[in-house]
Every structure is written in structure tokens, then in C-alpha cells.
Amino acid sequence: MDELYQSILDLRDQGRSAVLVTVVNSKGHVPLPPPGKMLADAGGRLAGTVGGGTLEARALEEVDRVLTVGGTLLKDYLLYGDQAAPEADDTNVETTGMNCGGRATLFFEVIGAPHRVYIIGAGHVGQAVARLLGTMDYRPVTVDCRTEFAPDLEAGADYAPLPELPVLAGSGVIVATHSGDCDRRVLEQILSGDDRPGYVGLVASTRKWSRMADELRDKLGDSADLGQVYAPAGLRLGGRTPAEIALSIVAELQAVRTGSGDHDHLKRGPST
Question: Are 143 and 119 in contact (CB under 8 A)?
């Protein structure tokens, strides 16, 4: 069982999702009584078991569907051989052909990884953003080129280069370094990469972003999708302190992630 829970922690660190399958009820003879558990993803079983054999094989087939749909599922499996029980016409009851002479109820639960957010620049604003994200279903990862800020990942001098950012595709990126040149250098690497983040926010003034956007176009050419950058980052909530700026940025990140519209963004419109 310790192996299973360690596997869940490893998945969260890797930014991956899986399904935890638990035997929550049983009648008669079953391969494994409650609380047997199995962790699995689309590639198959990762740890634990719900008893092996046909029951486990059927459960693994259900894992693929649960991962696609999300949420939870409660399903009964009948182990009476080829003889179907009267309730077998229920969509949440399945015959297995096993001859144990019992019935097992399995609960399927998606174990989702927290949404990863890379905070490039661990200064006052970056630290405030990390603290706020830490109270939510996010995994903040601070990145800085200055060791004295004790970042989670250390970049090269003046962010040349950035360290490897695992699971960057779909993640959030908030750029708040100590200089405009470093901001531009970071965005150049993010925008020229193959992985597209789900959100890119830049802590900057409108004027600073306008000048930086021109520089990025000259450097990256037509391949630069500057429209994906929220600059200035944040919703128009007011406030100038690091905590207030962080609240504005995290609110925008949440709105973009959930697809919630009708918000007043500081961003004037996509750059082209």
C-alpha cells in the first residue's frame, strides 16, 4: 500500500493524472475484498491491485474511459460465470465470466495533478504569487537566476538559458524578472519552444510591453505568437502592492484556465 501512495505522489510531481480504483464493497467470493486499491493510467496498472484476472482487466478498460470523461464512477462486477444476475442490465453492472461466485463494487476516481505554474522571477511579486497559488489547486515552481532567492529551479546568468521546465505544455507561466532585458530573454525562449503553455503573463507596463513586442517580432519573425501573452498581466482589480498585484494575476490565470469570460483584463488586446 505504501508503494501505491508513493506512486500517487510521484505522479503529482510529474504533472500526470491517473485513476485510483478501490474495492468498496463485495458479496460472496471475490478476488480481493475491500479496501483493495489499484492505481492505473492509460498505459496500464502502475501500483496495487484489485485482485488480478478478468476483473482487473475489465477495470483497466474502464480506467481509459474515466480518464477521458473525468470525475468518478461506481460500478459493480458480477462473478457468477456465464450466468447473468437479474440486475446485469444496469449500465453500471457488468458480468465478467469469472466463477468466483460473488460481486465486487469498484470506485473509480481520477487523481489529477495540480496545475503547474512557472513563476520566472522570485522577487517580491513572484513570491506573493507563489504564496497565493500555494493555497489553491496549483503547484507553483519558482525560477530565478539568483541563488539568494532560493528558487525551485535555477536559471543561467540573466536567464540565458532557462532550466528545463517539465510539463510546460498547458501549464501557466508568469514572467516577473528583475529587468526588462531578462523578461524579453525569457519570453523569447518560451515563445520559440515547441510546448505551448496554457497561460503566459508578463508583469510590465503597456509601454514596456509594446517596445518588447517589437523586439520579439524582430528576433522571432512571423513564428512569434505574441497574442498568447497577457501583458500587462492581471485583471483590473486595482492595487499596487505585491500581494494586490499577485491577486490580480492569479485571478486572471484562473479565469483563463476555466474559460470564464467577461473579465476586465489589463491586457488591451492581442499583439500581432
Answer: yes
Q: List C-alpha distances in Å: 133 to 130, 142, 193, 243, 264.
A: 5, 11, 25, 12, 21
Per-residue pLDDT at 270: 41
pLDDT for position 268: 66
35: cis peptide before it, omega within 30°?
yes
Dihedral of the alpha carbons of 60, 62, 67, 70, in degrees to the nearest 10: -150
Q: Tell me the domains of the chain and their CATH numbers.
A: 2-111 (no CATH), 115-258 (3.40.50.720)
Question: How far apart are the C-alpha atoms of 189 and 75, rounded to whole Å?
Answer: 47
HSE value, Cβ hemisphere, 13 Å, CA-based, for 153: 17
Q: What letter represents residue 30's amino acid?
A: V
pLDDT band at 190 (very low <50, low <70, confident <90, very high): very high
